[in-house]
Amino acid sequence: LDLRVRVDSEGAAQVIWAFWRIGRFQDAWTLYVRTLSDGRHPEHGKTGFTKRHAVDGRQRYYQTLLMETERRGDIAKQVYLWKQMAADFYARSLRAACLNCAVMALMRAGDQEGATEILRQLVRTRLGTSVSESLAVRMGLRYEDLEPADIVDIAIRRRPQCQSRFEDFHYKEAGVLETVVVQATPGDAKSVHAAIENVGLKEVWLKVAGGEKACVIDNVIAAVRPKLILEYGTYVGYTSTRLAMQLSSWGGRVVTMEMDPVNATIARNHIELCGLSDIVTVQLGHSDDAVQIVLDRFGPRSVDMVFMDQRGTAFHEDLQRLEQLD
Predict the structure, then answer these.
(1) Residue 221 falls in which region: left (phi positive, over 0), alpha (psi -120 to 50) or beta
(2) What is the mean pLDDT of residues 167-181?
């Protein structure tokens, strides 16, 4: 933590993860805040550090810190991180998606006043989307009736002058999000799926289990009727919401793990738009870390079915690890 030792953003991210791994979360948090304020956070700092580190650095920052703050139930830190993520993005859709996640966190904690205040800031900045409107409805409010906030948080007002490599890396997923919030009908999961499929068929290839694959999965679920499905690799939330549509009829749940915080942000917005936030849980973190968090929450041998949609070469290792833990 000695600031005389200079590290770039990727190096700081590795140290933050290492601190968390050995149980020194407060030191990890301190290093993150110092990195942010000292200019080692990409796009906001001093010269002399190449921006090629932005992708891995920020991805690991947010993955580790959001995973742990959510495990601890530390809402204040979660909201702080979502706002910082929003400030990293140039695209309005991604900025709004991060702030919607902050609203979701406050709603889960029962802080309706805090959630309403962020919605009012979304109104003031005109960043709100159909997901923001859906969240307002869940709180018994009408988004169009909300008064614009008098003061907007500086992190929400701050915006890069252009897209960073961190953002460019997720151009496909950001495009899916923009299409979904415009074309899908809130509360209608099938319209969300149709919008995602439309992007995959007409614009760019997407790694989603649609078509015949989706039919196979649907048939397996109908035959097995699992109570808890664990998915490896959320991506944009297409499969997890398809799974949830079936499980909802018998009170089942889906927990889906995603190591990329941007994909997790997008997926949570899609899940909310589907009206399935009470059935689908997006667990942030690499499976090596996240599986244990899931089992701690739901109990040993709680997983009835596993759907692996991550990197194919990791299937056997991940299954073996799950069997050992569960």
Answers:
(1) alpha
(2) 93
Do residues 254 and 237 touch, judged by C-beta distance below 8 A? no
The identity of residue 305, as a single letter, is: M
- Helix residue ranges, H only, the chain: 9-21, 25-38, 54-72, 75-88, 92-108, 112-125, 130-138, 154-157, 165-168, 171-183, 189-202, 211-224, 238-247, 261-274, 287-298, 315-325
Q: Which residues contact 238 (CB under 8 A, 6 or more apart)?
A: 193, 196, 206, 208, 209, 210, 270
Model confidence band, residue 312 (pLDDT cutoffs 50, 70, 90) = low
In this structure, are residues 103 and 132 in contact, taking their beta carbons and an 8 Å threshold? yes
| pTM for the whole structure | 0.91
Provide the token pair at 259: 């190591």
Please check whether residue 114 is in contact with residue 106, taking contact to mean a CB–CB distance below 8 angstroms: yes
List Cβ neighbours of 321 (8 Å cut-off, separation of 6 or more).
Answer: 287, 288, 291
Q: Tokens 């909310």 appear where?
A: 272
User: What separation in angstroms does the CA of 139 have from each of 36, 217, 273, 294?
Assistant: 33, 34, 14, 27
Is pLDDT of 44 > 50?
A: no
The dihedral region occupied by 46, where left means phi > 0, alpha psi between -120 and 50, and beta the remainder, is beta
Task: Please report how many Cα atoms fall inside a 13 Å half-sphere around the Cα of residue 258, on the Cβ side.
Answer: 25
Tokens linked to 246: 């079936």
Lowest mean pLDDT among 135-149, 201-215, 228-242, 253-267: 201-215
Q: Would you say 83 and 155 are in contact if contact means Cβ atoms under 8 Å apart?
A: yes
Q: Please give the single-letter amino acid code of residue 244.
A: A
For residue 257, the SS3 value is: strand
Give mean pLDDT, residues 10-25: 90
